[in-house]
Write a structure and sequence with these properties.
Blueprint lengths: L3 H18 L4 E2 L19 E2 L8 H4 L1 H18 L8 H68 L8 H9 L1 H16 L3 H15 L4 H25 L7 H25 L1 E2 L7 H14 L1 H9 L7 H20 L7 H17 L2 H18 L3 H23 L2 E3 L4 H31 L5 E5 L13 E2 L11 E6 L1 E7 L12 E7 L2 E4 L2 H5 L3
Parallel strand pairs: 6-10
Antiparallel strand pairs: 1-2, 3-4, 5-8, 7-10, 8-9
Length: 524
């Protein structure tokens, strides 16, 4: 049923329609009794005719009034259900609460889906980022491989032209002349020599189908080049496993281990002013003078170290640094002395006459296969270096007037047991550094260096350990911390390189003690 407002509009529209047909047809409005309530509002339900013969309201539309009143009451009841049902308020509140709960649950579900979607996108972002990093690393490796191939191609110009017959035909053909530069670039940038010669062979087969003998010769050359490329594949794709910064850090860590041992051993030992004169002391003084120089040996034998054994600690650092630098200067630590001398001479000659990658590959291969032929060589080198460090350290304590450890075997064994693990750790670090510089570095030649005793001080090549206490003048007494030097051959041809073509850089200057340190330690 239509609401009461629609009935009112229909009623008014009807009378307006009759009024438009008959201007004398008019309405009589009744005043409303209660403006606040819709049910008390009355409308002009009877038309008023000015003629003498007029009809009453009930006579004109007796059923229309009743139907309007009934519709009005029904509409009021439908809009005010609380007047009929007292429990309507509670049910309306419950309905509102239920709808709110449904909206809340829907919001929570939407939030959960959004969070899951965010987590999924984050995981995908991490995966893409990891893939991007791996791709960049692969591209970096490929770029380095291309540089190696470019350098090798420059060093081997005969490989640009695998067949003289084909080159002659190309020189006669203008089209081949125009494509020569692009083909050369393709050869220089290719990473697989076998594919290059296969492509050349197929091209020769298309342009020179009538020359069967030439194709057979090219096939033989291609097979030889393919075999050669397979033999060089291992080192053509090999790059430096250690960076320069990592090697510098390894040398600094080794220097720290040496300093800790020297300080601990000197602090544990006691010294006396009285020096025994025996054959052992004389022999130890001679050996220390051979290793560290006569000046330092004389200072250790004549000075009183009972109050301040600083000079003894510096001498310990110097003898260990000298031991390690001498061991690392050999081609392979622990290998036979004569074989080491020969291998060192071969590598030095190759370094000055061959390209840098060639000499580095030979050095790495030789060092690797020596250890494969002698698996016990590394352990032997560590034990031998440990024994040498102990023997040289005890010689320094002996000529310095040490009372603990004493020259007897029991006291020396106690000293070895006390510092055995620490000294062995130094030996292992030195042997590991030798393996890295000999096998895992292809781009340069790294050398662990130390200044010789009696050498004049040079501020560009070494560092004064006591530079804050005075001017750095005089000659070197000993080296307390090792340095690092990098050498690279810049010449790309096979001709012997001059000294100007060798790039030598000191990455870490060795720290030295000058003879003037005596005035700082014990001014008299």
């Amino acid at each position: 049923m239509l609401p009461i407002a629609n009935w009112k509009d229909l009623y008014q529209s009807t009378f307006e329609f009759f009024a438009s047909l008959n201007p004398s047809f008019s309405f009589s409005a009744e005043s409303a009794q209660d403006s606040a309530s819709v049910s008390d509002l009355s409308f002009p339900l009877t038309p008023r005719d000015p003629t003498p013969r007029s009809l009453s309201t009930d006579e004109q539309s007796p059923s229309l009034r009743d139907r309007l009143d009934a519709a009005e009451h029904i509409d009021i009841d439908s809009h005010n259900p609380s007047s009929c049902d007292p429990s309507f308020g509670a049910s309306a509140a419950a309905s509102t609460l239920y709808s709110m709960r449904r909206e809340h649950d829907a919001t929570k579900n939407e939030l959960s889906r959004t969070q899951a979607e965010v987590a999924r996108w984050e995981e995908r972002y991490k995966t893409l980022e990891k893939t991007l990093k791996e791709t960049r690393d692969i591209l970096k490796v490929r770029d380095q491989e291309i540089q190696v191939l470019k350098e090798r191609e420059r060093n081997s110009p005969e490989r640009h032209c695998p067949s003289t017959h084909i080159d002659c035909r190309r020189n006669r053909d203008p089209a081949h002349k125009r494509s020569e530069s692009s083909q050369s670039r393709h050869i220089r940038l290719s990473a697989d020599w076998s594919e290059i010669h296969d492509d050349t062979l197929s091209q020769a087969n298309g342009n020179h189908s009538r020359n069967g003998s030439d194709l057979d010769n090219m096939s033989t050359v291609s097979e030889e080049e393919r075999a050669r490329s397979r033999s060089l594949e291992t080192f053509l794709n090999k790059i430096d496993l250690w960076s320069g910064a990592q090697i510098i850090q390894a040398v600094q860590d080794l220097n720290s281990e040496i300093l800790q041992f020297a300080a601990s051993a000197t602090e544990l030992c006691t010294f006396s002013k009285q020096r025994p004169h025996s054959a052992k002391v004389t022999q130890a003084s001679s050996e220390v003078a051979t290793r560290l120089g006569a000046a330092l040996s004389r200072l250790l034998a004549t000075r009183d170290h009972s109050q301040d054994p600083m000079l003894v600690q510096l001498a310990l650092q110097g003898c260990i640094s000298y031991c390690i630098s001498r061991a690392l200067s050999s081609f392979c630590i622990g290998y036979q002395s004569k074989a080491n001398i020969t291998l060192t001479q071969i590598y030095t000659h190759m370094f000055h006459s061959e390209p840098q990658p060639t000499s580095s590959r030979w050095r790495a291969l030789t060092h690797k296969h020596i250890h494969e032929l002698h698996p016990e060589l590394n352990e032997y080198a560590i034990n031998e270096m440990t024994e040498t460090i102990f023997r040289w350290s005890l010689d320094i304590f002996l000529i310095s007037g040490s009372t603990n450890p004493q020259p007897n075997p029991a006291s020396r064994e106690n000293f070895r047991a006390r510092f055995g693990a620490q000294v062995k750790r130094i030996s292992k670090a030195a042997c590991r550094l030798a393996q890295v510089t000999k096998e895992e570095i292809m781009s340069a030649n790294f050398e662990v260096i130390a200044a010789d005793s009696g050498q004049p001080f040079d501020g560009q090549e070494m560092m004064d350990a006591f530079e804050d206490y005075g001017s750095s003048d005089g000659v070197v007494l000993c080296t307390t911390e090792l340095g690092l030097r990098c050498s690279t051959r810049k010449a790309t041809s096979d001709a012997p390189a001059s000294e100007e073509s060798i790039d030598r850089r000191i990455l870490l200057r060795p720290k030295v003690v000058l003879e003037s340190v005596v005035e700082v330690i014990d001014p008299r």
